[in-house]
Design goal:
With about 80 residues, the protein is mainly α. The protein is built from four helices and no strands. It has helices at about 1-20, 25-35, 45-65, 75-84. The termini are far apart.
């Protein structure tokens, strides 16, 4: 019975941490939905895919200002770090 309880505890603790690890992804999808998906309509699935790609590669990864980067965009922050 002790082995079963240890396995259950281990499994339960892994489940808890998996939920914690998904916080970043859940935050990203909330941003994607609120700033792209809900604000416009799309002509086709291909159009949607292109818009999502542009959102991620152009705006989210390069231009979006982040408080964790001293209120700079990732590109500005990276350029500043490389210049130093």
């Amino acid at each position: 019975m002790k082995i079963i309880n240890k396995k259950m505890t281990l499994r339960d603790s892994k489940y808890y941490w998996k939920g914690y690890d998904n916080a970043f992804v859940e935050t990203f999808f909330k941003t994607l939905k609120s700033e792209l998906i809900w604000n416009q309509s799309f002509r086709s699935e291909d159009h949607l895919r292109k818009e999502i790609f542009e959102f991620i590669e152009v705006w989210y990864n390069r231009k979006r200002i982040r408080s964790s980067l001293d209120n700079k965009s990732p590109l500005e922050y990276e350029l500043e770090i490389n210049a130093a």
